[in-house]
């Protein structure tokens, strides 16, 4: 039966012999795509009286939504926190390379830097759709400089800032450009931080709590003012204590406003978080867990010296340290490896592991109506994976943008 061209002249693709992640379950059914969107086959059959133009045998692959990385500092020799004259070229290189790891959208992340770096880099970051050129850019994640000196981690102390004088005006003076900004990580215990959180939230920017010595009540107040994310849980914050669990306590707090969910990032690389801690977080608040890579310029390259903003980083295997110290400084993990480690460490279901890298970050950013699921009418950004969750092929807007050399359909 030919397709009904009265509705659209675009070709209809039917992906067969696959298991689709839909409604939190892997389901044995076909995936239908037209004009870059997931198509409802019932409407096609019964309303349009149409059928597929092209059928593709997926060879028993798992089809899952494309991964979304909301914290990635660079990779493949590119450092997003360096003020070059051609930031776009570096972002484009990373966006192309991460397709092989299943990432179809991401937030380029800048660590604490002098104002001049933000003033030069941020105007060069453009929000854009993904495609053959690379993964889509959802907006920048600015991690600092409004963070705690005590929990600065790999951030250079002499560039840290506060809100004590002008609150939001201090932030504007530091960043200058907010049009491309999607997430800001700050320490909620800072004076006047509530004003800043409210204004960022009003502008549609996600506020994340991190690099902080905040107690639980300070963290809860930040959430009441609009904060919705925790930057790399357990890392760069007070350790859990039974009398005051600090920011970690948000995972089970009874003071979260109704219909509000707090999400939290986890670097599931086997280095930053012990598997037992990963299991504790997941079991305490499974629907809030967002896998992030926190990858640095050394991701995808041989061990050695690289940069993270204004500092030199040494990569030794999977460990990354500020040169001459034992201070962890990002990771060299890829998103697909984080998904596999999370699955193994927690014993969760395949569906849960995949949703932590797709559905949950989409929900965090409020874009689940477009990305992060294979629901009808959503963007056809998806992956074909084998049973061990290795990526076989990556699709953006229904177009294959990467595939294994040995995998053809």
From TrEMBL:
- Known cofactor(s): a divalent metal cation
* Signal sequence coordinates: none
Q: Which InterPro entries match?
A: Amidohydro-rel (IPR006680), GlcNAc_6-P_deAcase (IPR003764), Metal-dep_hydrolase_composite (IPR011059), Metal_Hydrolase (IPR032466)
Cofactor binding summary note: Binds 1 divalent metal cation per subunit.
- Keyword line: Carbohydrate metabolism, Hydrolase, Metal-binding
Any idea which positions bind Zn(2+)? 143, 211, 232
Q: In which pathway does it act?
A: Amino-sugar metabolism; N-acetylneuraminate degradation
EC number in record: 3.5.1.25
Q: Which reaction does it catalyse?
A: N-acetyl-D-glucosamine 6-phosphate + H2O = D-glucosamine 6-phosphate + acetate
- Binding site residues for substrate: 154, 235-236, 243, 272, 328-330
* Presence of keyword Metal-binding: yes
Q: Which GO terms describe its molecular function?
A: metal ion binding; N-acetylglucosamine-6-phosphate deacetylase activity
Family membership noted in the UniProt record: Belongs to the metallo-dependent hydrolases superfamily. NagA family.
Name recorded for this polypeptide = N-acetylglucosamine-6-phosphate deacetylase
Q: Which organism is it from?
A: Chelydra serpentina (Snapping turtle)
């Amino acid at each position: 039966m030919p397709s009904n061209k009265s509705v659209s002249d675009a070709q209809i693709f039917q992906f067969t012999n696959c298991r689709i992640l839909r409604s939190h379950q892997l389901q044995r059914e076909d995936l239908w795509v037209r004009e870059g969107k997931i198509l409802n086959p019932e409407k096609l059959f019964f309303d349009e009286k149409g059928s597929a133009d092209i059928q593709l045998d997926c060879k028993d692959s798992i089809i899952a939504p494309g991964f979304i990385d909301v914290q990635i500092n660079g990779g493949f020799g590119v450092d997003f926190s360096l003020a070059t004259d051609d930031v776009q070229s570096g972002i484009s290189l990373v966006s192309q390379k991460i397709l092989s790891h299943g990432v179809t959208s991401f937030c380029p992340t800048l660590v604490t830097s002098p104002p001049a770096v933000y003033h030069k880099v941020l105007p060069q970051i453009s929000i854009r759709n993904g495609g053959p050129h690379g993964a889509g850019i959802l907006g920048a994640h600015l991690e600092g400089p409004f963070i705690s000196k005590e929990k600065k981690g790999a951030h250079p102390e002499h560039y840290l800032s506060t809100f004590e004088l002008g609150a939001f005006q201090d932030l504007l003076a530091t960043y200058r450009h907010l049009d491309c900004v999607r997430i800001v990580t700050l320490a909620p215990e800072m004076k006047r931080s509530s004003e800043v959180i409210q204004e960022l939230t009003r502008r549609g920017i996600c506020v994340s709590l991190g690099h902080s010595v905040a107690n639980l009540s300070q963290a809860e107040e930040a959430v009441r003012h609009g904060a919705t994310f925790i930057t790399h849980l357990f890392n760069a914050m007070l350790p859990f204590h039974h009398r005051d669990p600090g920011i970690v306590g948000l995972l089970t707090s009874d003071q979260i406003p109704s219909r509000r969910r707090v999400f939290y990032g986890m670097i599931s690389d086997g280095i930053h978080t012990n598997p037992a801690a990963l299991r504790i977080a997941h079991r305490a608040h499974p629907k809030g867990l967002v896998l992030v890579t926190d990858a640095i310029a050394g991701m995808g390259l041989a061990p050695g010296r690289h940069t993270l903003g204004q500092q030199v980083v040494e990569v030794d295997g999977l460990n990354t340290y500020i040169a001459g110290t034992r201070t962890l400084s990002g990771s060299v993990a890829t998103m697909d490896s984080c998904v596999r480690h999370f699955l193994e460490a927690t014993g969760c279901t395949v569906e849960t592991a995949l949703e932590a890298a797709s559905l949950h970050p989409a929900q965090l950013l409020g874009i689940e109506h477009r990305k992060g699921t294979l629901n009808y009418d959503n963007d056809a950004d998806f992956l074909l994976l084998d049973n061990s969750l290795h990526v076989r092929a990556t699709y953006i807007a229904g177009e294959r943008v990467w595939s294994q050399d040995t995998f053809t359909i």
